[in-house]
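Suppose you are handed only these lines of text.
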Amino acid sequence: MIKDVWTIKRALEWTSQYFKKEKIENPRLNAEVLLAHILRKTRLELYLEFSRPLSLRELTLFKKLIIKRSHHVPLSYLTGEQDFMGLRLKMDENVYIPRPETEILVEEALKLVRSIDFEEGKTSQDFIIVDLGTGSGNIAIKLALELEKSKVYAVDISPEALGVARENARMHNLNKRITFLEGDLFIPLVDLGLEGKVDLIISNPPYVRSEEIKSLPPEVLREPRIALEGGGDGLAIYRKIISQSPGFLRKAGFLALEIGHRQARRIQDLILAQKGLCSAQVISDYGGVERIILVKRM
Ligand SMILES: C[S@@+](CC[C@H](N)C(=O)[O-])C[C@H]1O[C@@H](n2cnc3c(N)ncnc32)[C@H](O)[C@@H]1O
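From them, the structure of the protein bound to S-adenosylmethionine can be written out as follows.
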């Protein structure tokens, strides 16, 4: 009888071993996050209540999540949330899960916006920002919160992703400050009279080469394909963004892009060949990988 009591400690130990066997990375962390989610506790609280027995309902729910996780469903889809720069965001399988590298993109964009503000005497609060491929809305929401009077236009081709992004904006009381638009990159912006007026265009577009998709980790393959695939050479969306940005940016406005591994040179070439854009600044992530490209409109 005693043996059938599943305490928090026992459930975590068993699940960590199981995940290890199933080749899930960070097995203990995964077990803790899932159990904490079911019990609505923090991971620390689990440790403080190690000998608390789980009810049958809790065990059943936990078991369901363990099975899904062992089939490589990402943790954020199972818990339904993800942290981005200190913001809690709702997630589901319709949206790309925000990555830490994208936090660097947002930090660099904020530095840029604040520097043009300083150079040209414009208040950084009044900026017009366009986020192309907004996904869960993470970039748009963080920028809107940091730049209190900015107006943000967030575009995505996926209506399902926009549904999640809108919900996230509502959660952060930003539904009036962010306009969500469905469509292919700049197309939904055409009728809004924004040509030549945008201060910052920001994007983390899909950039995986079509033939590379099949070799992505199984967790990544659970994310929407439209969020990953960037055409035969991975640069299809960059070509469109780079060629159309000069028409929307105001003079001295900025384009900030996240880029894939080893794409910097080819994207710089596209920028150099584009009339209306200055040469690009490339910024590396903490692992020394070139990740961000910043370009100024001439
Ligand atoms: C890599 S995800 C980035 C999501 C989010 N901005 C982030 O950084 O975490 C790329 C996003 O671009 C969207 N997308 C793909 N092609 C697009 C297109 N042609 N026009 C607009 N959005 C597109 C996808 O639906 C996806 O949400």
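What can we learn from it? The mean pLDDT is 95. Residues 96, 98, 102, 132-135, 138-139, 155-158, 161, 184-185, 204-206, 226-227, 237 surround S-adenosylmethionine (CB under 6 Å).
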